[in-house]
């Protein structure tokens, strides 16, 4: 038998290739090996949960206990380590199999990445004023509002908040830029979704917040940026092992301060000394502390947050669920909220295309207090000699006295509830193109549904059917008639939707020493508001029906009842399209230029003014890059910057604002009786109404010393708003209606901001970092007139206390600040113990004073300085932080105290203990005047936290474990005599305490943070 040589040769070649292949496999297996090691920080502490990726591959893991990692790689591979708050670290694999890698914490320096409009930048490349707060540095506590998380953290951001869990904080950036209520808050942008509702955010979801303060930074957002822009970046998934974590706390709150009102014995003694006594209807032998009856002794709050993230180098994801519940310190009030969030990012086309999808959903259930401020007022004035209930268990009431209501009965017999559902979906796509171009598309949808219910039962409709309602200033008190019997119910459901499509092209190019970044884009937004319905009913068979079934009422049996369909809420459609562009130029990282412009068009404004243009320009000089500073070691960075920009304000305007509208204006006589409805013009047309414009000049300097151990910034700004939108009275011979909304008026804000951060001590076992920020702003109204409309000033805030009808407290006047107090000047007491006041000529009088004519300018509510001071200390596994906040130089009009200052009516309403030495002959004691304008300055210990992080590996399966306790609002140092000096600083009537003082609480939290392997 012979072998065929060709077959043998083929077989030989196959065997040869198999042998060679096996040889290379063995060689490859020898080169690709297990790489292990530990990741630590600069203090040699392990970093747990960091992402570990072999660059250019899908191999990924994360660090575990002790910062240990294990991954397969070969010689020459690059392994990238990344962790939130730290600079990425790259390791090139050599001959060794085990490595110790040190990762550096990202310092709060000029090299930080900052989120700006339609892009990102390093702080070193900025030409404008932007402040950044990392998620871990936000205020901690039982906080339901993002605004409160920023209190005291950003210079120039004036944030005030009451203790009510259902009230958002008032946020004013660098002074008020408008005279319209509800139009002063900054614009929120969440993950590039413009105007997103901040209620969809849980505190644990926030990675960082960038605050664009000057117009040059914010002008890229055009007609919505006059009040500044707050950019919120949420946490994203990172490649590596799946990370599962939980954080939660339990808190107990109690009232931090109360009014010192007389008890029953003190009141009887006071009246006896003044030859007076209580009426039998009011003295029932009780000794009731109404503040304790209205408020909870201890309110509880708790928060649970579960998050999961991970993925590969191509696909990353993150998901979180948050549940928050907080009892209000006023009984029957509280907030229950659930937030779910899901995000995913996918890379494709060799990583040139990145797709992202984020879904957020917030569901809140808020129990409100009907006629809240009225309940708070009655809590103080109701006599302590009256019981909460009669012997038979029914609520006590003295119905002979007017405007005198049992506050506990008001709480228990009225109910208001608001359920809110908000969902935001955002799809993004980023495509990297040749020649340094990239293309971004973003499409977002936001839907908010509000379901409101209110029920005032048969006790309300029989006893409190003419309630004195005391709203927050500048609104004036009114009497509200609850028309109906056997209970009144209100039910409504409205929804708002917001659709945004934005697309922009970015070009990044480097030519030698020249860097150019350019952005050009387009935005389309459609908002549909107030899509819904309301109905009312009355005459219910039982009180337990509440507002849940209006059909059980019988309103037609009540002759004067009319179903309220809420005609004041009008369906609105708002359309806006925009073009924008920005160019940044960088030469040798020394000299920086930036210019931007946005063109906005909207159906909101007049037919002749539907388009607005908002430009900005900025420049900066990185002085530390110059040769004359190269060889010194003290100064690390030094930058001088300046900018100018114009932004607009379109908040609170709708398409019908500029239209001629007809409506009911009363009735006319027909056959001798006014039976027929009369209709006429109720709003004038103004085709020339346009945006308010705010122009800001900003000059600043940024610096760091000693390799970043000490750093800060100093900013000066001049902000001027023109074309203020105000209503004016006009001649009805020339206009159909007597009111016209027009662009008239100017106001300005000028100020300084200073930030200083330092690390005085940094060792292996002990680190101390501290930071302080100080801001000063001077607000001034320049004019309220032009060639057509002439107005010198406007009086605002009319509390309408008993015996003070027509008295006002503040004035909007050229040369004065918003919140300027304008009222009577106190001149002490005469020989008979009667309070006296100066008239306009300087004469001292007890009677005959005229409102306005005899008023004086008596300071204003604008603070002269806002201060925030943070200290963080770490000793081994312990961490301790303290945050203090101060507001200095502001005045508060204590209307609440003035209305209580009535010694001559103590037999009808309770009085404070401080009034016991006042004379009952003083019929002038309560008059609104400088006597009740108090210094509102305060220093508050806002937050103190002590935590301990357990050693790694102490519990199997647990990557890290930290327990902590936090105390909020531990103390306040102030001379203010009210409940709390943190009175609303927002709106056109700041600094007025008029029974709107929902009590603040002192909170103690116990919590833990844990992550699992």
UniProtKB/TrEMBL annotation:
Pfam families in the cross-refs: CarbopepD_reg_2, Plug, TonB_dep_Rec_b-barrel
Keywords annotated in UniProt: Cell outer membrane, Membrane, TonB box, Transmembrane, Transmembrane beta strand, Transport
Domain TonB-dependent receptor plug: 124-229
Record's keyword annotation contains Transport: yes
Domain TonB-dependent receptor-like beta-barrel: 386-970
Main subcellular location: membrane
Compartmental location: Cell outer membrane
Listed GO CC annotations: cell outer membrane
Keyword Ubl conjugation applies: no
Topology in membrane: Multi-pass membrane protein
Similarity comment text for this entry: Belongs to the TonB-dependent receptor family.
Protein name: Iron complex outermembrane recepter protein
């Amino acid at each position: 038998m012979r072998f065929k040589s060709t077959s043998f040769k083929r077989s030989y070649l196959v065997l040869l290739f198999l042998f060679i292949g096996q040889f290379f496999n063995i060689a490859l297996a020898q080169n690709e090996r297990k790489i292990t090691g530990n990741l630590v920080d600069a203090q040699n502490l392990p970093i747990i949960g960091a992402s570990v990726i072999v660059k250019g591959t899908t191999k990924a893991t994360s660090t575990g206990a002790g910062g240990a990692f294990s991954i397969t790689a070969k010689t020459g591979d690059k392994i990238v380590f990344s962790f939130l708050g730290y600079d990425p670290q790259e390791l090139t694999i050599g001959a060794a199999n085990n490595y110790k890698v040190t990762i550096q914490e990202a310092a709060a320096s000029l090299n930080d990445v900052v989120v700006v409009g339609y892009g990102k930048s390093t702080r070193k490349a900025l030409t404008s004023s932007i402040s950044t707060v990392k998620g871990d540095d936000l205020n901690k506590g039982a906080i339901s509002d993002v605004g409160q998380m920023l209190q005291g953290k950003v210079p120039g951001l004036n944030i005030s908040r009451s203790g009510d869990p259902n009230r958002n904080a008032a946020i004013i950036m660098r002074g008020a830029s408008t005279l319209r209520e509800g139009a002063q808050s900054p614009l929120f942008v969440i993950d590039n979704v413009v105007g997103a509702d901040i209620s969809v955010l849980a505190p644990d979801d926030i990675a960082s917040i960038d605050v664009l303060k000057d117009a040059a930074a914010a002008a890229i957002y055009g007609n919505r940026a006059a009040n500044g822009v707050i950019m919120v970046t949420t946490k994203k998934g990172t490649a590596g092992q799946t990370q599962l974590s939980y954080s939660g706390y339990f808190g107990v709150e109690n009232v931090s301060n109360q009014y010192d009102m007389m008890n029953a014995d003190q009141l009887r003694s006071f009246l006896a000394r003044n030859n007076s006594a209580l009426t039998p209807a009011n003295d029932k032998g009780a000794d009731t502390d109404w503040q304790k009856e209205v408020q909870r002794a201890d309110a509880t709050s708790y928060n649970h947050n579960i998050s999961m993230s991970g993925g590969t180098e191509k696909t990353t994801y993150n998901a979180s669920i948050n549940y928050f519940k907080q009892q209000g310190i006023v009984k029957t009030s509280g907030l229950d909220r659930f937030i779910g969030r899901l995000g995913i990012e996918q890379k494709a086309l060799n990583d040139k295309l990145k797709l992202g999808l984020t879904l957020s959903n917030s569901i809140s259930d808020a129990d409100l207090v009907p006629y809240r401020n009225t309940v708070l007022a009655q809590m103080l004035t109701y006599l302590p000699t009256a019981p909460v209930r009669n012997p038979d268990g029914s609520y006590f009431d003295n119905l002979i006295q007017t405007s005198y209501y049992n506050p506990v009965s008001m709480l228990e017999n009225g109910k208001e509830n608001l359920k809110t559902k908000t969902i935001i979906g955002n799809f993004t796509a980023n495509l990297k193109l040749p020649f340094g171009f990239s293309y971004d598309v973003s499409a977002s949808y936001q839907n908010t549904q509000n379901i409101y219910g209110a029920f005032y039962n048969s006790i309300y409709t029989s006893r409190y059917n003419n309630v004195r309602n005391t709203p927050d200033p500048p609104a004036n008190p009114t009497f509200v008639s609850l028309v109906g019997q056997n209970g009144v119910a209100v039910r409504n459901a409205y929804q708002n939707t917001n659709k945004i499509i934005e697309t922009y092209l970015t070009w990044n190019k480097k030519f030698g020493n020249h860097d150019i970044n350019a952005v050009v884009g387009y935005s389309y937004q459609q908002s549909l508001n107030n899509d819904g319905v309301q109905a009312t009913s009355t005459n219910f068979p039982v009180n337990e029906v509440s507002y849940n079934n209006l059909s059980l009422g019988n309103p037609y049996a009540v002759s004067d009842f009319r179903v309220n369909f809420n005609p004041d809420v009008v369906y609105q459609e708002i359309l806006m399209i925009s073009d924008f562009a920005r160019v940044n130029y960088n030469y040798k990282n020394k000299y920086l230029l930036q210019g931007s412009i946005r063109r906005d068009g909207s159906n909101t404004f007049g037919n002749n003014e539907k388009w607005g243009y908002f430009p900005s320009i900025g420049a900066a000089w990185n002085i530390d890059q110059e040769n004359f500073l190269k060889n010194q070691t003290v100064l690390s960075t030094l930058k001088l910057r300046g900018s100018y920009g114009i932004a607009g304000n379109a908040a609170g305007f709708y398409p019908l604002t500029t239209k001629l509208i007809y409506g009911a204006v009363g009735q006319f006589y027909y056959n001798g009786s006014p039976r027929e409805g009369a209709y006429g013009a109720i709003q004038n047309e103004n085709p020339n109404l346009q945006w308010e414009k705010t122009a800001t000049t900003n000059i600043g300097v940024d610096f760091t010393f000693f390799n970043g151990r000490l750093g800060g910034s100093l900013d000066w700004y001049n902000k001027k708003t023109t074309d203020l939108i105000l209503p004016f009275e006009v001649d009805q011979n020339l206009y159909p209606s007597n009111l016209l909304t027009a662009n008239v008026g100017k106001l300005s804000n000028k100020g300084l901001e200073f930030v200083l951060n330092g690390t005085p001590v940094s060792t292996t076992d002990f680190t101390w970092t501290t930071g302080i920020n100080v801001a000063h702003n001077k607000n001034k109204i320049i004019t309220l007139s032009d060639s057509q409309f002439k107005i010198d000033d406007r009086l605002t805030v009319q509390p309408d206390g008993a015996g003070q009808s027509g008295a006002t407290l503040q004035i909007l006047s050229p040369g004065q600040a918003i919140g300027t107090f304008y009222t009577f000047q106190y001149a002490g007491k005469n020989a008979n113990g009667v309070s006296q006041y100066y008239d306009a000529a300087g004469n001292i009088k007890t009677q005959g004073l005229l409102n306005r004519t005899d008023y004086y300018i008596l300071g204003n509510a604008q603070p002269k300085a806002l201060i925030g001071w943070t200290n963080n200390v770490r000793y081994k596994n312990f961490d301790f932080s303290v945050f203090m906040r101060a507001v200095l130089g502001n005045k508060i009009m204590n209307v609440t105290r003035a209305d209580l200052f009535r010694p001559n009516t103590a037999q009808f309403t309770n009085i404070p203990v401080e009034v016991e030495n006042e004379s009952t002959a003083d019929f002038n004691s309560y008059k609104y005047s400088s006597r009740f304008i108090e210094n509102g300055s305060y220093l508050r210990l806002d937050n103190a936290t002590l935590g301990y992080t357990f050693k790694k590996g102490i519990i199997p399966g647990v990557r890290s474990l930290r327990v902590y306790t936090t105390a909020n609002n531990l103390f306040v140092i102030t001379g203010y005599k009210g409940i709390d000096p943190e009175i609303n600083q927002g709106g056109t009537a700041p600094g007025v305490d008029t029974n709107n003082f929902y009590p603040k609480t002192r909170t103690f939290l116990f919590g833990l943070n844990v992550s699992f392997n």
